[in-house]
Design a protein that fits this description.
By secondary structure, the chain is an all-alpha fold. The protein is built from 9 helices and no strands. Helix 3 runs antiparallel to helix 7. The longest helix has 29 residues, at 35-63. The chain is elongated, with a radius of gyration of 35 Å. The protein starts with a helix and ends in a 47-residue tail after the last helix.
């Protein structure tokens, strides 16, 4: 259940930060009259996310009749959840510094359009987190014992509530945490959770007959890693680490977790700064010689001047 709690905490905090940025911008801009539209958009995004999660659950339990089709559906959702988790953690690391400015710019444009634009902007800013949460929660909960039962759902809600409390504390400046370090640690844990989800998806593909090797176990350490012990249940619940995985499950877990963790924990390279151009000494300005004056035409003789007569 810790995995679903972590998903609720991480996704919930991202959504809470987005909402707090929008609300703080409207309050500081003396546009409190637009706050109802923001909350309407947030509420619509949450409602759509709940409907989406219910639709996934209904499809798995009611629409799919055979066990092979259910296993295949769960495998596809697991792979999709891994893709979303990977994209989300790398996107958040890249956009964390600029997300506030981008949201303020989009909200400014929405304010110029009207109320529906403000509500739509808030909806789009939150609905992505909600849909990701519903998909990842389903895949993570199905990958452990108990499925999407009451315990997993309560753990998810607990993570979301914790995120809302933290976000409200940050908004009121009553709580100060290093968000960069927080997202780094939770991102690393989510990568391990995603590796477990991918391992579960591979197992579902094997049970559905899409992939071979269902009975080819990589190892069996049941005598050491008791699945009924607390530590065995913790590892299985968090990262889907089991005592007797198949060869393909182990390959998928390692092939995803190791390179993605290395890429995520590696410090992003800063673009090289352009080399400073050497300052060339300026040559003293040469004195400009005055131009020669133009030749002036001869002055005409006065009209009444005497003209000498020629001598005879």
């Amino acid at each position: 259940m810790f995995a679903t709690y972590l998903i609720g905490l991480r996704e919930g905090l991202e959504a809470t930060l987005v909402v707090s940025i929008l609300v703080a911008f409207l309050v500081k801009s003396q546009r409190r009259d637009r706050l109802p539209q923001v909350w309407a958009g947030v509420g619509a995004a949450v409602a759509l996310s709940v409907v989406f999660g219910s639709l996934i659950q209904y499809t798995s339990t009611s629409l799919l009749r055979t066990s092979e089709s259910r296993e295949f559906f769960e495998a596809v959702t697991s792979v999709a959840a891994v893709v979303f988790v990977t994209w989300m953690i790398f996107w958040m690391r890249k956009a964390a510094r600029s997300i506030a400015g981008e949201l303020r710019g989009k909200l400014t444009e929405a304010l110029a359009v009207g109320s529906l634009a403000v509500a739509g902007m808030a909806f789009l800013a939150v609905v992505r987190e909600g849909l990701e949460t519903a998909l990842i929660f389903y895949a993570a909960a199905e990958s452990v014992a108990g499925g999407t039962g009451a315990g997993s759902l309560l753990a998810l809600i607990g993570g979301i509530v914790t995120a809302v409390v933290i976000g409200f504390g940050l908004y009121r400046s009553a709580l100060k945490i290093n968000l960069s370090r927080f997202f780094t640690w939770t991102g690393a844990l989510l990568i391990l959770v995603a590796a477990g989800i991918l391992k579960y998806g591979v197992h579902d593909f094997q049970e559905a007959g899409v992939l071979p090797g269902l009975n080819d176990q990589a190892f069996d350490i049941s005598a050491t890693l008791d699945p009924n012990a607390w530590y065995g249940a913790l590892l299985a619940g968090m990262f889907n680490i089991t005592a007797a995985p198949t060869v393909l499950e182990l390959v998928a877990w390692v092939a995803y977790a190791v390179p993605v963790l290395v890429l995520f924990l590696r410090k992003p390279t800063q673009p090289p700064k352009p080399a400073a151009q050497p300052v060339r000494p300026t040559q003293p300005a040469q004195p400009v010689e005055p131009a020669e004056p133009a030749a002036t035409p001869a002055e005409p003789a006065p009209a009444d001047a005497a003209v000498p007569s020629p001598r005879a």
